[in-house]
Amino acid sequence: MNFKSFPKIKSERLLLRKIEESDDAVILYLRSDETINQYIERPENRKTKTIAQALQFINEITQDYHNNKSVTWGIIYKNEPHLIGTICLWNISENNTIAEVGYGLNPAFQNKGIMTEALMCVIDYGFKELKLIKIEAFTHYKNESSKKLLEKTGFHFMENRKDQDNDSNSIYELLNSQS
User: Fold this and answer.
1) Contact 99, 93 (CB under 8 A)
2) Can you tell me the distance from the alpha carbon of 69 to that of 96, in angstroms, rounded to the nearest whole number?
3) Is the whole-model pTM more than 0.90?
4) pLDDT 10s digit of each residue in the chain, 179 long?
5) Which distant-in-sequence residues (6+ apart) come within 8 Å of 171 by Cβ?
6) What is the CA radius of gyration of the chain?
7) What pLDDT is stored for residue 85 in this prediction?
8) What is the DSSP annotation of 31-66?
9) Alpha-carbon distance 56 to 52, whole Å?
């Protein structure tokens, strides 16, 4: 990857933008709320429990972006300043052909098609701009909302693949039809 400048992405209702330090309270909420994180198994050292840890996380994703390791967007409604969720392409393969997508959304905004819209934008960006061959998603086998979202956006469940790091995860993938 070689990001020239942070990619802002606009859709019909949304703006995907860089996450700033001023988003620290929302990042803390998105990474610590029990409902949002009920299916996410983070090691203790990756949990976000304080504003300081939220700022540390924001600094880490900013560094990862500058080091071409990942790109994480904040999801906002156009013309509204506050983050309602995040979405990222990360865990990018050494040859820059495969990336993993991750996302989280404030429960007050779920079931409104927001994450479908954001995910479609990120898929489009990943395939057209980053020239990825494949995007993967690892989601908890009990997370029906996430599985439905992935299937709705074209991902396929990879029945024969297992997450070596987490037995609870199901793996989905989407191949670039243009490559």
Assistant:
1) yes
2) 9
3) yes
4) 667 789 999 999 999 999 999 999 999 999 999 999 999 888 888 889 999 999 999 999 999 999 989 999 999 999 888 999 999 999 999 999 999 999 999 999 999 999 999 999 999 999 999 999 999 999 999 999 999 999 999 999 999 999 888 889 999 999 998 76
5) 136, 137, 138, 157, 158, 161, 162, 163
6) 15
7) 98
8) HH-HHHHTT----GGG---SHHHHHHHHHHHHHHHH
9) 6
Q: Are strands 98-105 and 134-140 parallel, antiparallel or unpaired?
A: parallel
Q: Do 140 and 104 form a contact (C-beta atoms < 8 A)?
A: no
Instruction: Give the full edge-to-edge strand order of the sheet including 98-105.
Output: 9-10, 14-18, 71-77, 85-90, 98-105, 134-140, 169-175, 156-157
Amino acid identity, position 137: A
- Which are the contacts of 173, defined by CB distance < 8 A and separation ≥ 6? 134, 135, 136, 137, 155, 156, 158
Closest to 116 (Cα-Cα) out of 151, 144, 159: 151
